[in-house]
Amino acid sequence: MDALNQTRVIEFAFLGLTENWVLEILFFVAFSITYVLTLLGNTLIIVTIVFTPRLHTPMYFFLSNLSFIDICHSSVTVPKMLEGLLLERKTISFDNCIAQLFFLHLFACAEIFLLTIMAYDRYGAICAPLHYPNVMNIRVCVQLVFALWLGAAVHSLVQTVLTIRLPYCGPNIIDSYFCDVPPVIKLACTDTYLTGMLIVSNSGTISLTCFLALVTSYTVILVSLRKQSAEGRRKALSTCSAHFMVVGFFFGPCIFLYTRADTSFSMDKVVSVFYTVVTPLLNPLIYTLRNEEVKSAIKHLRQKQVFS
């Protein structure tokens, strides 16, 4: 045990996305623009919802929370990745690596739970419209958001504790551009099979269970739309298709990355980029481009700002 403590890893080094400096510069420019647009797009949605009284409904309350989570989620990994693209030696201290890992899982799990809650919200609004105002009021919405953050914190703590309890005495090269549980535990100087299975069962169960709940909710919604009017069908399909696009973009990479034990594929980095960089930008684009109420509210706020 003393030997392990004496040789304990104090920092990790990332291999990054590529060793080609031209590609690194191109990636830096592209991901910098993507990150700025992510911050601006999600902030715009939050501000629009906060300052538009008619958008003070459960659906848009959850949407503003989704935008907040997307800002936090991308900010956990993208700034460090951008720094690494400019540096020859891409390192992170052990403590900062664990912190990055914790917050990555906190925000990712919070988004999974929130997307599930949003599906339940749409199910209530479309399939039980008479009971919806009583079932989904602002008090219930706040309680659900509190519960999802609590659940996400518990999940993230479990993942973090399972990771830091392992001894790390070298090597310290992470084949990625950020700290995540699977690539980090591979560096432990002990057998990690049981830990890996516990981690996969934790993340995998949450991802698959919530995804199946989402698919079930949207299936029931689609079946129930046969009883709706043509206008009601069009509006419901527009909203639900936007939600389901976000679900597909987020859950696909999650299930791909976190339902495997000690295996890795060459596509892992590409999937990780999509999951940490691209998806947080797609959410505001999907919800603004496909949602007439949000577009109308943004236009109204812009006019008020111009003429005030």
From TrEMBL:
One of its GO terms (molecular function) is G protein-coupled receptor activity. It comes from the Eukaryota. It comes from Ursus americanus (American black bear). Putative odorant or sperm cell receptor. It is a multi-pass membrane protein. This is Olfactory receptor. It is found in: Cell membrane. Keywords: Cell membrane, G-protein coupled receptor, Membrane, Olfaction, Receptor, Sensory transduction, Transducer, Transmembrane, Transmembrane helix. Pfam families: 7tm_4. PROSITE patterns: G_PROTEIN_RECEP_F1_1, G_PROTEIN_RECEP_F1_2. The chain crosses the membrane at residues 25-52, 98-120, 140-158, 206-225, 237-258, 270-289.
